[in-house]
Amino acid sequence: xxxxxxxxxxxxxxxxxxxxxxxxxxxxxxxxxxxxxxxxxxxxxxxxxxxxxxxxxxxxxxxxxxxxxxxxxxxxxxxxxxxxxxxxxxxxxxxxxxxxxxxxxxxxxxxxxxxxxxxxxxxxxxxxxxxxxxxxxxxxxxxxxxxxxxxxxxxxxxxxxxxxxxxxxxxxxxxxxxxxxxxxxxxxxxxxxxxxxxxxxxxxxxxxxxxxxxxxxxxxxxxxxxxxxxxxxxxxxxxxxxxxxxxxxxxxxxxxxxxxxxxxxxxxxxxxxxxxxxxxxxxxxxxxxxxxxxxxxxxxxxxxxxxx
Length: 308
Hints:
CATH superfamily of the largest domain: PurM-like C-terminal domain
Shape: globular
Helix content: 25-40%
Oligomer: single chain
Strand content: 25-35%
Largest sheet: 7 strands, mixed
Number of domains: 2
Strand order of the largest sheet: 8-10-7-11-9-12-13
Number of strands: 13
Radius of gyration: 20 Å
CATH class of the largest domain: Alpha Beta
């Protein structure tokens, strides 16, 4: 295996850049220059993935690039922003041309949808680690912060939970759908929104604590793979394990009742699925119901990446 230099890596990245008109000086110089869109709020996020913390050595470079890009897009989606520009830092012990090409294919599989241009980053030698910073835009001033849920809001989720949990049980990796099309719609309708990178239970607790409200969740209404129900019925896993597990990157959001039907119709008309799973309550308690029975769901065990 031939190890390639940082200059060769930059060349590979620069040959696979998605065009964006606001870039004045692209990747390849000491720093990039861009003239940001006017009349927009700039939204930025960053995330790191580390070997043996977020993934194991069996992950492919394509999967690593895809998941790293998806997690950052998910954060911007939860704020109602369109992703635009990325900075990528990669630490790797033996960077080969094939590895870098596959990594680029992975993140560009996600980035080409928007598009996102890589405007810089750094490559160093050492234990495997990828860190991305993603910059996006929104025309809205409603950032759907988690402290803004209101009593009476309907709680929605953008897709199934437990897909990453099942994948790791099978020693594989879940490549999530990005929910940006939904995310950029939500500021018109939602009071608060967050992505479930740390699990649905952590997200619910975060909304409840910051908004000083209670949350009622109907587990029956949560979309999920029937394999999860089979594992639960066979007592192979518990609801706590599933609810505390993250990395599904679905959005959970609250919408006032008078907007819920409107949002449902808007999403239906453009082919987006959303699922009503509960309601914001006044009692400051978080309650999970299954078949109309209250379950005792513990959140003592926080989600740890690469737990399974």
